[in-house]
Each structure stands twice: as C-alpha cells, then as structure tokens.
Amino acid sequence: MTALPSMAATQKTTYSLTEASYPVFVNNVAYTDGKLPMLNYQGSTYVPLRSVGDLLGASVAWDDALRRVHITASEDMRPCNNAFCNVSVNGSNGRYIVSGTARVFEAVMNYAVEDGHNYLLEQFHTLAEGAPAWSPFAIELEIPESGQPVNGTLTLELFEYSAKDGSRINVMSIPLETFGP
Which end of the chain is more exposed for a tag (fewer CB within 10 A), N or C? Predict the structure, then answer.
C-alpha cells in the first residue's frame, strides 16, 4: 500500500507504507479491521486512532474549527504494558498502596521509587504465578519524610530484569505524589 500526497504549491514528502503483518493487541484484544488495516513505515506501526480509542474506551473526535483531533480517556483507565496492568495508587505523605496485575518471568516483579534525582528504594515482590499468567499484586510503600522531596515528584518504577542480559525491561513509571507549591 502506498500513500501519495497531492502536490500543491509546496513540496510534499512521499511515504511508502506497508500493511503490518503482525498482530497488535489493545488490552488483550486483537485489533482487526479489513477496511482500516494497521500500517508499517520504517519499523513504526500506525493504527487508526478511532479504532484504538474504541478498544481503550476513549473518545476520539475531530474538531473541524480548530483542525485537530481530540482523544479523551475515561477517568477509570489505568496504565498497562506487557508486564503490568490496571495499576492504581492510593495514599499520600509518603505512605502508598500500589495494586494491579503483573505477568513477569518467574513471578518476580521489581520496583523502585525515585525523587527525580536519586533512588530512595529498590525492592522486589513475588507473585502467586509467573508469566504467562496475570497475577494480582499489592505492595505497601513507605517513604520517610526525610526522603520526600521538598519540591518535586515521587515516582514509582515497576519493572522486571531481563533473563537475557539483566537490563530493566517492561518499565512502567507511575507518579506517586507531587510535593511543593
């Protein structure tokens, strides 16, 4: 499939797109649409916004007056990636309960809290089941007042270590709380 923009007064770029030959899953639902296929351009996947919005429960609207697209997610949408999903945070003032589901190698998920400059803690949590199963988790975090930023954000990183090379993979960053004015 090739997209060729029309030539007007200004020079336009031509892009060669191909139909993606691999599946894309949105919240564990495969995207399929014979009329609006997924496309690939130089290793990047392009999926119709409205179709993905529908799968995510988000509204997608064209604003003709401003000539732009608006995507609005519902309030109850929670972040997901290949290893962590439906993550929510409750708490404040350095005390937080983080819950969700995880699908990690050998049932070991890792997490760290940072203040934008330094890691304040790094630990692991063992789940009831390892990948490919999704397993619920709940972890309690306590950051002493001395470790809380005066002006900044505490951020939680959920991740797992790669069995291949030990690098952090499937990293999900979640703000815990913002401090300051």
Answer: C
Residue 173 is assigned to a structural domain of this protein: yes
DSSP string, 121-164: EEEEEE-SS-TTS-EEEEEEEE--GGGS-SSEEEEEEEEEE-TT
Contact 58, 74 (CB under 8 A): yes
Lookup: tokens for 118? 């330094």
Query: Which pTM was predicted?
Result: 0.59
Q: What is the mean pLDDT of residues 25-47?
A: 79
The verdict on 93 and 167 lying in the same domain is yes
Q: Which of 89, 157, 174 is nearest to 118 (CA)?
A: 157
Domain total in the chain: 2
Rounded to the nearest 5°, which phi and psi values hold at 56? -90, -10
For 106-160, write each residue's pLDDT tens digit.
999 999 999 888 999 999 999 999 999 999 999 999 999 888 888 888 999 999 9
| CATH number of the structural domain spanning residue 146 | 2.60.40.10
Indicate if 121 and 152 belong to the same structural domain: yes
Instruction: Calculate mean pLDDT across residues 55-61.
Output: 75
